[in-house]
Amino acid sequence: MDSQLTVDLGLILPRLLLDVIGISILLMGLYFRNYRRADLVAVYLACNIGLFSVLTILSFSPVSSAVGFALFGVLSIIRLRSFEFLPTQIAYFFISLAIALICATDMAGLVLPIILVVVMLVAMAIVDGAKFRAVTESSVVVLDVAIPDSTELKAHLNTLLGAEIINMNVTAVNLLQETTTVEVTYRRIKK
């Protein structure tokens, strides 16, 4: 019995170390450095560690798949819809879960999990790097004028923001209250 526990710890501890290193780099090296949101760091870390723990138990124990399905049924009760996540926040959330999943699942070795975790971290570092993020900005703009014509709206936003409008999505035009709500992606014009 003790030798079985030692063998399991020998398999689990390197995976736990990989998970801790991966999630630390993701959260402290990338996310917190860029966004300074300690509340979301706590959420991402809790989900990562929780998923790693649950999957480790399922991966390294003779628990039936029915228990696994029941567990995911219970976990599906947790709803994240009460808080509106930005696309970048969803990406970090997904990567934090993927790191836990890859690290906790027994794939007969550590080489593949290490490669996958490194690839995910490098990808996030590239796409959420300052140079990549500086290419465009996105905002929801509420104008105090109703502009139903898209060409006129684009010209107005261009002048208002001092930017080149890349994409815009009108979400509301209220002719009675004379407002226009638009999601806009733009690039600042360098002077």
Describe this structure in words.
There is one protein chain. This protein is an alpha+beta fold and 191 residues long. The protein has helices spanning 2-35, 38-59, 65-75, 87-104, 111-127, 130-133, 150-161, and strands spanning 137-143, 163-174, 179-188. The chain folds into two domains: 2-133, no CATH class; 137-188. The chain is built from seven helices and three strands. It has a three-stranded antiparallel β-sheet with strand order 1-3-2. α1 (2-35) runs antiparallel to α2 (38-59). The mean pLDDT is 84.
Largest sheet: 3 strands, antiparallel
Q: In angstroms, what is the radius of gyration?
A: 23 Å
* Spans of at least 5 consecutive residues with low confidence: none
Question: What structural category do the secondary elements indicate?
Answer: alpha+beta
Oligomer: single chain
Count of distinct structural domains: 2
Beta-strand segment tally: 3
Order of strands in the sheet with most strands: 1-3-2
Mean pLDDT: 84
List keywords for this structure.
single chain, alpha+beta, 7 helices, 3 strands, elongated, three-stranded antiparallel beta sheet, 191 residues
Q: How are the secondary structure elements laid out?
A:
Elements: H1 2-35, H2 38-59, H3 65-75, H4 87-104, H5 111-127, H6 130-133, E1 137-143, H7 150-161, E2 163-174, E3 179-188
Antiparallel strand pairs: 1-3, 2-3
